[in-house]
Design goal:
It holds the Pfam family Ank. Keywords: ANK repeat, Repeat. This is Ankyrin-2. The chain is built from 18 helices and two strands. It is mainly α. It has a domain of 100 residues: Ankyrin repeat-containing domain (Serine Threonine Protein Phosphatase 5, Tetratricopeptide repeat), CATH 1.25.40.20. The protein has a two-stranded antiparallel sheet. Helix 13 packs antiparallel against helix 14 and helix 15 packs antiparallel against helix 16.
């Protein structure tokens, strides 16, 4: 916590006493002598911020009884609940929520990727730090599982299966696009991540044939699975209904198909899987030609083996 002196020296003394976790009677004496429950200490921080930061439950209770402003935020937008969520203090988070604090602090906006100088929501802080109990508590108390940030919604920012599952259970949108136009399922397969994340998204109805826009070459989920080189993922997606060919017509028909990408990777296994599931070997792009044209390029690994697969 910042150490600058407050305008009222007793505020600094109160904050220091809270951090040192002195007996409650000492805090009561400071309050009786003129320290204020809701006066700033420094940079917008109130005594309640210090009590939560220090995980000082008795001090939190005392300040709440003395009518501390439970939703007060500091200069960067942190409330007491933000601190509890960031540090994983589940009991304190529950205490604050039971006392009536807000669960979301950003104002609603129609901007799909809003810019803001404020900090993230308590839910985002809990998930980022993998404090799943706190995250579940916040969701149970009404935290928005589809809150939007500059780089995407909550589900686009989730980095682990546990966070993903929590968000999905509480209504996160499986088709939310991040700032680059990628869905959670695309992200899960392109990073060659956990098959559990892919299965979870499919279980909650993620579109196995979702497609990006021109920024990402109109790629489908299957494109990203092929690029990951994971044959198991490719097989799984096809079994779940993924189309092996790009639906026509596209605004720009020269974009590569999943089969083109498998050939470019020099991966006979993926080529075989796609062909066995009906990929069009004669689809021709005005720029790169047919998959056979691609396979004949000098820099394609295993090109002889790939061409043999084509003609079996």
């Amino acid at each position: 916590m910042p150490a600058e002196c407050a305008a009222n020296p007793l505020q600094r003394s109160l904050a220091d006493a809270i951090i040192r976790m002195v007996p409650m009677d000492e805090l009561r004496i400071l309050l009786a002598c003129g320290a204020k429950v809701n006066e700033q200490v420094t940079q917008g921080l109130r005594p309640l911020h210090y009590a939560v930061w220090q995980n000082n439950e008795p001090a939190v209770q005392l300040l709440l009884v003395r009518n501390a402003d439970i939703n007060a935020i500091d200069e960067v937008g942190y409330s007491a609940l933000h601190l509890a969520a960031e540090h994983g203090y589940n009991d304190l988070a529950k205490q604050l929520l039971d006392a009536g604090c807000k669960v979301d602090y950003r104002e609603p906006t129609d901007d799909p990727y809003p810019r803001t100088t404020l900090c993230d929501e308590p839910l985002r802080l809990a998930l980022r730090n993998r404090h799943y109990e706190v995250a579940r508590l916040l969701l149970e108390r009404g935290a928005d599982p589809n809150k939007r940030y500059f780089f995407g919604s909550e589900i686009n920012l989730a980095t682990d299966v546990e966070s993903l599952e929590l968000l999905l259970k509480f209504g996160a949108n499986t088709e939310a696009r991040d700032r680059s136009g990628i869905t959670p399922l695309m992200r899960a397969v392109r990073t060659n991540g956990s098959i559990d994340a892919v299965l979870l998204l499919l279980q909650y109805g993620a579109d196995v044939n979702a497609m990006t826009d021109a920024r990402n070459d109109y790629r489908t989920v299957l494109h990203y699975a092929v690029l990951s080189g994971n044959a198991s993922l490719v097989n799984l997606l096809i079994k779940q209904g993924a189309r092996v060919d790009i639906p026509a017509p596209l605004p720009e028909p020269d974009r590569p198909s999943p089969l083109d990408l498998a050939v470019l990777r020099g991966d006979p296994t993926l080529v075989r899987i796609l062909l066995e599931n009906g990929a069009n070997v004669n689809r021709c792009s005005p720029i790169i030609g047919s998959p056979l044209h691609v396979a004949c390029a000098d820099n394609i690994p295993h090109r002889v083996e790939i061409m043999k697969v084509r003609f079996v």
